[in-house]
Every structure is written in C-alpha cells, then in structure tokens.
Specification:
CATH class of the largest domain in chain A: Mainly Alpha
Helix content of chain B: 40-55%
Shape of chain A: elongated
Helix content of chain A: 25-40%
Order of helices and strands of chain A: EEHEEEEEHHHHHHHHH
Radius of gyration of chain A: 22 Å
Number of domains of chain B: 1
Strand content of chain A: 15-25%
Largest interface: A-B, 71 and 68 residues
Strand order of the largest sheet of chain A: 2-1-5-3-4
Order of helices and strands of chain B: HEEEEHHHHHHH
Number of helices of chain B: 8
Oligomer: heterodimer
Number of domains of chain A: 2
CATH topology of the largest domain in chain A: Fumarate Reductase Iron-sulfur Protein, Chain B, domain 2
CATH architecture of the largest domain in chain A: Orthogonal Bundle
Largest sheet of chain A: 5 strands, mixed
CATH superfamily of the largest domain in chain A: Alpha-helical ferredoxin
Chain lengths: 254, 280
C-alpha cells in the first residue's frame, strides 16, 4: 500500500541551509534511502547524499532521521508514523559538505593515531596460531562497518567541538581495545603500552559511559560494555590501582 | 586528510568553541535536537527512581531505630559496628566504634554500598543522564559549555570502583549470614522460617547477582587476561560473569528495590505495625 509522506530534508552547504519540505510517495517495504532516491529522481535532482550498498554493510548512508543517528538504508518507513513529517538531516557532529553529506575526515585522522597491530617476535606470515576463545572478543569489534554513527552521537565531540583534538571517539577506542585484547599483538614487547595510551593519548577518560554509541550501532556491537569499560578497567590496572602495580613489580622481580 | 578537506573551523584542545551542534562548520539547524519521540521519559524516570531511593534511604539511615526485629536485621544496619547498636543474637554487631559515636550506626557502613553504587558503571550512566544531563539522551544536546568527563578530580575517582567492589563482596557475605540467621525464631532456635526470611533471601540473592555482575568483577575474574585458552577456569568464570553482566542494569534496579523493601519490612515488624508471619 502506498501513501504520500511529508519529508523535511536539510538542504544547504557550509555557508548555510534549512529544512525543505517535500511530499513524496512511499511504497510498501521501502526504507528512508529509497525515498531520498525518489526525491533525487523526481523533484530534487541535485540533492547530495552518500550511499553505496543499500544493505547496511558499507556504512555510507549515515544521517539523522527524526533526530536519531541512523543508516538511511536500514530505517524502514513502516517504523515511522505516516502522519508525522520525516525529518532527515546530515550528521550533526561533523562539518557539512552539502545537503546530507558530511566531511568525516576527523575519523580518518583519529584512525591514523592508533598504532597498528605489532607483529609478534619470532613468528612469520602464515605462522600465527590463535585459539577461538582468544579472538572471540576482538571479532565482535571487527563487525564495525565504520558508519561513524557512534562518533556522531557521542556527546564528547558532538556537543564539544573543542574535545575533537584530544578524544578518539568510541570507534577508535574500540580499536585500541581490540588490539590490546589481541593474543598476538606485540605492542607491549615493543614498548608500546596501549592501556596507558588509551587514557593519556586517546582520551578514554572523557568517555562517561552513557552508552549512546551502543544505542546507535547498526551492527549491535556492545561498544560500551565489551570495549570501552574493559578498556577503562585495563587503564585502571596501569594508572589507578596500586595493588596491580605492586603485583606487577613483584612478578617482574621473581 | 583522506578526503582532502580539513574541518573549516578547527579549535585547539580545551578551548570551548561555539556550542557543539551549532558550531559554524556544521549544518545550520537552529534546534538543539530534532528528536520527536519521548526521549525525556527515560532520564526523568531514572532520576525520579533514584531520588525516591535517596530520600527513603536518608530517612532510614539517619533514623537509627527500628532496624532489628529478631531474628531479622535491616540490610542498612548490617554489619552494625558501633556501641550504640541494639544487641543482635549472634548477629554481625561488633563494637568497633565506642560510645563517642552517637549518630546512627548505619552511617558507618552505608558508605561502602553507597560508594559501590555511586561508582558503578551502570549508575554512572543513569545519573550522568538523569541528573547531570550529560547528555540527557542520545543526540540531545547537553546544556554544559565545557566537558572534561572523568579526566579530572572529582570524577577521576570513579576509577576506584574495583575497591568498592571488594568491600561490596564483604558486605554481601555478611548479609548472607544475616539471611541465614533468618532461619531461627525470635528466641534464637534454628529450623524456623518466616515471611521475613524469604524477604531477606530474595534480597541477598539480588545483591549477589548485582555484585557479581559488576564490570570490575568481570575484569578481575578474567577480562584482564589476553589469552583465555591458557586460563580455562577463569575463562569459564568470565563467561558466567559476562552473562550476568549483560543484565547489570536490571540487577542494579532490582537489588536497589529489594534492599529498600527488606529494610522497610524489618522496620514494619520492628516498629510493631504487624507481626512477622511464621511459616514453620
């Protein structure tokens, strides 16, 4: 069954813009991205939107629908009230480029700040052997499609632009956690303390675990419970727990 | 930069920029948020629930009376470590603090469960959202001009949560002992049970479930290990705690309610409102 929906889409660029009203046909089974494409095909041919797979796996079509950060391709129209306008805006934590397209280069800069996997000494390519239980935790984090909805919704940078230089954001703190939990990562042996650097260089202390990153994750990764809080506990081991510090000193001497 | 476009109005660390979603580089949308759902309901309900508990527990903690009705003791007053505690038959009343302590004995012990819950990862989320609006809800702009999170005093002290966890385990052990004493009658004879015994048992079961589902506990029992395959016992324990941990929020609320209910039950019996129905 089709109906006419009232859409309000943000149109503009870095110099300004506003919500523009459209009335557009919605067919059964469609998602918000389908409607945006219909708008492009009918009355707004110059509407800028980033998209790719239409299957929730490329992370391109991130936007805010009725104020909630979501993937447009994974938001079914049947979930929205047909009598209420559907408001679609670009992500509000990043600089806007045009219409629904934002400049997410902040995330790529943060990605480069996380030191990559350090190959273990004495093992060559093809010689890595890991037990499933040792990599299970990290595998959850590998589901990330880098849609940056978690980065967008995190109030640490969304509401405080000044924190962007010092805070990596949930996606990249999760990356630090993934590497710190990796059974073969040789960072510690190479003199890189990921636990300490999470707190001192990637701004883990700014996270106040209010779980918005987890709420918006389209891959349903438990970012807060399985990555950020365990990473906080690991940082506590390094920086705030005298008993753990003492234990590590004694073990080193024995 | 990967896209070749730097953010237009870069700011330096720690220098407040023009407010968050209204930063000049971002889409110009006058509204601080565009959520049309009832986003305020959850933080409001959380704040109301926590406020109600704070009011009730403050009243009971300062009352210093009606907390023991043999064989039951209120969880707010156990262990009772002041000389002014009422005598409890085989109970956890130790006169650590002498007669100079004239305030309610509950104040001496409640600091530990209070600290445990105050630094708990779930309650932090609850009160940061409910009371401090930081943020009030996801994608709803917070009202504060600056934000440093848990990087500075006093919030950096949230990092001592694991120490409160250790104390919470001790307190839970003592409350388990109290619940076991509930299988006596008022004269101290074993093999009896009343409605109060069930109340204390339900309470201690929820207290243990909440305590063991703690994120610090999850880290201590196994989370800190990098290679689970070398520690199969700890891996198994980590799996159990992780299963509980997934329900940490529900257990936090259930145990908060149960501890208040257990205290109120003892208060009603101790103040003579009704007699404890004996089952056998």
């Amino acid at each position: 069954m089709s109906y006419e929906a009232h859409f309000k889409v943000w149109r503009g660029d870095a110099d300004g813009g506003s919500l523009v009203d459209y009335t557009v046909t919605v067919n059964e089974g469609e998602v918000v991205l389908d409607i945006i494409h219909r708008l492009q095909a009918t009355e707004a041919a110059d509407l800028a939107v980033r998209w790719n797979c239409k299957a929730g796996k490329c992370g391109s079509c991130s936007a805010e629908i009725n104020g909630r950060p979501r993937l447009m391709c994974m938001t079914r129209m049947s979930l929205l009230d047909p009598d209420e306008p559907v408001v679609v805006t670009p992500m509000r934590a990043f600089p806007v480029v045009r219409d629904l397209v934002t400049d997410v280069s902040f995330n790529y800069a943060k990605a480069r700040e996380v030191p990559s996997f350090v190959p273990p000494d004495g093992l060559g390519p093809g010689e890595y052997r890991m037990q499933q239980e040792d990599v299970e935790r990290s595998q959850e984090f590998r589901k990330c499609i880098e849609c940056f909805l978690c980065q967008n919704t995190c109030h640490v940078v969304r509401d405080h632009e000044e924190n962007k230089p010092v805070f990596a954001g949930p996606r990249f703190l999760m990356r630090v956690a993934e590497l710190d939990m990796h059974p073969l990562d040789g960072a510690a042996e190479a003199g890189l303390d990921r636990k300490r650097s999470a707190q001192e260089e990637h701004g883990l202390g700014y996270c106040n675990i209010t779980k918005c990153c987890t709420e918006v994750c389209p891959e349903h990764i438990k970012i807060t419970d399985n990555a950020l809080i365990p990473l906080k506990e690991r940082a506590v081991d390094r920086k705030y727990d005298p008993l753990v510090w003492l234990g590590s000193k004694i073990r080193r001497r024995v | 930069m990967a896209t070749g476009t730097d953010p237009r109005s870069a700011t330096s660390a720690g220098v407040p920029a023009q407010g968050g979603v209204h930063h000049p580089s971002r889409a110009t949308i006058p509204a601080r948020h565009l959520r049309a759902d009832r986003w305020w309901l959850q933080p409001a309900a959380t704040a109301a629930g926590l406020f109600a508990f704070v009011v009730y527990s403050t009243w009971r903690a300062f009352a210093g009376d009606d907390y023991y009705a043999a064989p039951y003791v209120s969880p707010f007053y156990s262990p009772c470590i002041a000389e002014n505690c009422v005598p409890m038959k085989s109970g956890a009343d130790w006169e650590v603090f002498g007669s100079w302590w004239s305030l309610s004995p509950a104040l001496l012990i409640l600091i530990f469960p209070l600290g445990f819950r105050l630094t708990c990862y779930y309650y932090r989320k609850a009160y940061y959202r409910g009371f401090w609006a930081s943020p009030p809800a996801c994608a709803v702009a917070e009202p504060h001009r600056t934000y440093t999170g848990e990087t500075r005093f006093p919030l950096v002290l949230q990092n001592i949560h694991r120490y409160f966890f250790y104390f919470a385990v001790i307190v839970a052990g003592i409350l388990t002992y109290d619940a076991a004493l509930g299988f006596r009658n008022a004269r101290g004879e074993w093999g009896h049970m009343g409605l109060g015994t069930l109340v204390l048992l339900a309470n201690i079961a929820l207290i243990w479930a909440y305590t063991l589902s703690c994120h610090s506990c999850r880290h201590i029992v196994g989370g800190r290990i990098r290679t689970f395959s070398k520690h199969p016992v700890r891996y198994r324990m980590w799996g159990w705690v992780s299963a509980l941990n997934a329900r940490h929020m529900q257990l936090a609320w259930a145990s908060l309610v149960s501890v208040a209910v257990a205290d109120f039950y003892v208060y009603l019996v101790a103040s003579g409102v009704f007699d404890d129905p004996r089952l056998f």
